[in-house]
């Protein structure tokens, strides 16, 4: 999956924040990774680190947002043009997560304390790219899937059996709502071709044709 696929229904992000530090020719490169959902949140991390590391010379950053990865930004923050932000961004966008290059909803900020030895343009590119890549090595990756949710009305007596059989068939079953005269199951399926038809067929077989699916909503879900 890549930024060229605007119809992406799943992608990979990170589960928790990551902090990684490396020293290269006396310069300290301190990299933070954080999962974010929008640009303000990404820029908030940059602001936080500017305050925390107020005496650092550079606070370079890159972020990728959205399942389609259409939002991509980077900043050299005073380093020679193209030697920091873009290498950091490429480390994010070209990362193979095991599902392809689909990493998104992530911001990387690299704080640099200059150690007195110039690295040169090529050295800076490698340093910033490697800092982010090494931080990603420490990250716990998380799959995010666009799901469609449905409800299924049934009787109190049938609800537990339906729930168990649907789970056993591999469908995601959410909460069951109990009403005085009936019960309502919540089901979720991946937004992928053929999944709705498969669920409808299974429901028809399970309920002997008596069950009707009612569309509830669409949402992004972190997969276990």
Structure, explained:
By secondary structure, the chain is an alpha+beta fold. The protein has helices at residues 39-52, 85-93, 120-138, 159-168, 195-206, and strands at 10-14, 18-24, 27-35, 58-65, 71-75, 106-113, 141-154, 172-178, 183-190, 213-222. Strand 4 and strand 5 form a beta hairpin.
pLDDT < 50 runs, ≥5 residues: 1-6
- Overall residue-averaged pLDDT value: 94
The residue fraction in helices comes out at 25-40%
Q: What is the approximate shape?
A: elongated
Helix-strand string: EEEHEEHEHEHEEHE
Sheet/helix structural class? alpha+beta
| Rg over CA atoms | 23 Å
> How many individual helices?
5
Strand content: 35-45%
N-C termini distance: 20 Å
Biggest beta sheet attributes:
5 strands, antiparallel
Tell me the total number of β-strands.
10
Quick tags:
224 residues; disordered N terminus; single chain; 10 strands; alpha+beta
Give the arrangement of secondary structure elements.
Elements: E1 10-14, E2 18-24, E3 27-35, H1 39-52, E4 58-65, E5 71-75, H2 85-93, E6 106-113, H3 120-138, E7 141-154, H4 159-168, E8 172-178, E9 183-190, H5 195-206, E10 213-222
Antiparallel strand pairs: 1-7, 2-3, 3-6, 4-5, 4-6, 7-9, 7-10, 8-9
Helix pairs in contact: 2-3
């Amino acid at each position: 999956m890549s930024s060229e696929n605007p119809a992406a229904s799943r992608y990979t992000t990170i589960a928790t924040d990551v902090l990684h530090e490396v020293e290269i020719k006396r310069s300290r490169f301190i990299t933070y990774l954080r999962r974010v959902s929008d640009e303000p949140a990404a820029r908030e991390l940059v602001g936080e680190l500017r305050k925390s590391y107020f005496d650092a010379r550079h606070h370079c950053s890159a972020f990728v947002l959205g399942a389609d990865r259409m939002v991509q930004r980077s900043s050299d923050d005073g380093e020679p043009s193209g030697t920091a932000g873009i290498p950091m961004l490429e480390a994010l966008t070209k990362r193979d997560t095991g599902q392809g290059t689909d990493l998104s909803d992530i911001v990387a900020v690299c704080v640099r304390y200059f150690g007195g030895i110039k690295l040169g343009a090529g050295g800076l590119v490698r340093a910033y790219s490697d800092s982010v890549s090494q931080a990603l090595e420490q990250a716990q990756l998380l799959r995010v899937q666009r799901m469609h949710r449905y409800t299924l009305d049934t009787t109190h007596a049938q609800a537990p059996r339906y729930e168990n059989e649907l789970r056993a068939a591999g469908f995601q079953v959410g909460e069951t709502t109990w009403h005085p005269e009936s019960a309502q199951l919540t089901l979720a399926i991946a937004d992928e071709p053929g999944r709705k038809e498969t669920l409808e067929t299974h429901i028809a077989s399970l309920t002997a044709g008596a069950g009707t699916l009612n569309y509830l909503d669409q949402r992004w879900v972190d997969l276990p």
